[in-house]
TrEMBL record:
Pfam family, one: Aminotran_1_2
Entry-linked SUPFAM superfamilies: PLP-dependent transferases
Protein name: 8-amino-7-oxononanoate synthase BioF
Enzyme Commission number(s) from the entry: 2.3.1.47
Domain Aminotransferase class I/classII large, first and last residues per copy: 43-393
Cofactor: pyridoxal 5'-phosphate
Gene responsible for this protein: bioF
Sorted UniProt keywords: Acyltransferase, Pyridoxal phosphate, Transferase
Phosphoprotein listed as a keyword: no
The species this protein was found in: Methanobrevibacter ruminantium (strain ATCC 35063 / DSM 1093 / JCM 13430 / OCM 146 / M1) (Methanobacterium ruminantium)
UniProt-listed CDD domains: KBL_like (cd06454)
Length: 414
């Protein structure tokens, strides 16, 4: 027993509360891809999921999950022991084809994928160059790695190149010549919704022999003509296919693919190495057959209907972005369905989100440490299955609440 520890933890929680930064869990049951109820049965319109194509409630996906659950509700072990279901191999082969890579490995979550890949591949004397706004799972992967980590300014390839040159000089002075360099970046950044400058990153990776790793968690099923992600997005734009220039493409099954789990696509040697050495892969029970089967069914639907899904997603994104901007909200410009509405102070952001909740709309309030201090925001996401009516109603409500809050603030500051 250590009563002092409990007291200290309590104090820390109190401080979070006083700064409007404490977090609580609100229970929610999704009755469709866009609607959910709380414990009292109150219905909400949800504008905050990562369920970009709305496939969590698609009948084919649900049926695939049901069918695979007849092979057992759990996987019973790690893939290296008893948990290597047929479904896992099938999905890996499907993903390799989809991403045009030699091989794929599934991890239990996208978070685990980033941990397991980054700290397994990077060794002492290696250097990881990581974008300032990378996802927490990438940051944590670099923190448990033995390699040196240099963080470059968000999407700033000049800064990246400067850091690389500085490190090269230092290694020369120390007479170290066995270092490998890694560049790690989100494809679509999870908080700002902007897209990594992949062509420039490839150029730098080639020039300095870096292993280039891109995390397409918010890009797979979301950008690129057929939803293949960042590589395809730039192929559409420039006509140049960068598949071969990216060493590893990480992704998740938990966003557009309507299930749970993470994956990595790349050369077979990398994948075989991870199977042999990556501890989060080796020492954790595999995903259940039904979890994997639902992701595979979602992937098959995406492959079949990509034009329909992506057109809907893009139209919904444009509509919401335009309505909010016309209404005077401070929206970070972009083309992805992640729409950050910058509010500023954490307490005001909380209040905004609570007011929306009263009107039956759920939008997440994102506060530090997820974003820098003073940049608290509503992080609104639209998905392909939102209707035009749902989008216009939500935009109108957001604009009205914003105007009311502004008036109140002006009055208070008068
Ligand atoms: C969501 C996300 C992850 C984590 O994926 P999970 O499957 O939810 O664990 C990793 N990287 C990025 C960029 C993400 O947005």
């Amino acid at each position: 027993m250590n009563p002092n520890l409990e007291m200290k933890l309590k104090e820390e929680l109190e401080e979070l509360k006083n700064n409007n930064l404490n977090r609580t869990i609100d229970d929610l049951r999704f009755i469709s891809s866009t609607k959910a109820i709380d414990k009292d049965g109150k219905e909400f319109l949800v504008f905050g999921t990562n369920n970009y194509l709305g496939l969590t409630h698609q009948p084919d996906v649900i049926n695939a999950s049901k069918k695979a659950s007849t092979y057992g509700t759990g996987s019973t072990g790690s893939r290296l022991t008893t948990g290597a279901s047929f479904e896992a191999r099938e999905l890996e082969e499907n993903l390799s084809k989809f991403k045009s890579t030699e091989s794929t490995l599934i991890f239990n979550t996208g978070y685990m994928a980033n941990l397991g890949i980054i700290y397994t591949l990077t060794k002492e004397d290696d250097i990881i160059f990581s974008d300032q706004l990378n996802h927490a799972s990438i940051i944590d992967g670099t923190r448990i790695s033995k390699a040196k980590v240099r963080v470059y300014k968000h999407k700033d390839t000049k800064d990246l190149e400067n850091l690389i040159q500085t490190e090269i000089k230092e290694l020369k002075e120390k007479n170290i010549n066995s270092s490998n360099f890694f560049i790690v970046t989100d494809g679509v950044f999870s908080m700002d919704g902007d897209i990594a400058p992949l062509p420039e990153l490839v150029e730098i990776a080639n020039k300095y022999n870096c292993c280039l790793i891109i995390d397409d968690a918010h890009a797979t099923g979301v950008i690129g003509k057929t939803g293949k992600g960042t590589v395809e997005y730039y192929k559409d734009k420039t006509g140049i296919d960068l598949t071969e220039s990216v060493d590893l493409q990480i992704g998740t099954l938990s966003k557009a693919l309507a299930s749970e789990g993470g994956f990595v696509c790349g050369k077979k040697t990398y994948i075989d190495y991870l199977i042999n050495k990556s501890r989060p892969f080796i020492f954790s029970t595999a995903l259940s057959p039904s979890t994997i089967a639902s992701a595979n069914a979602a992937l098959n639907l995406l492959k079949k209907n990509s034009n329909e899904y992506l057109t809907k997603l893009q139209n919904n994104t444009k509509l919401m972005r335009n309505l909010l901007k016309e209404g005077g909200l401070n929206v970070i410009d972009g083309e992805t369905p992640i729409i950050p509405i910058i509010i500023g102070p954490a307490d005001l952001t909380n209040k905004f989100s609570k007011e929306l909740e009263k009107e039956g709309i759920l939008v997440s309030a994102i506060r530090p440490p997820s974003v820098p201090k003073g940049e608290s925001r509503l992080r609104l996401t639209v998905i392909a299955t939102h209707t035009k009516e749902e989008i216009t109603f939500t935009a109108k409500t957001i604009i009205k609440i914003w105007n009311d809050l502004k008036k109140k603030l002006e009055y208070e500051n008068h």
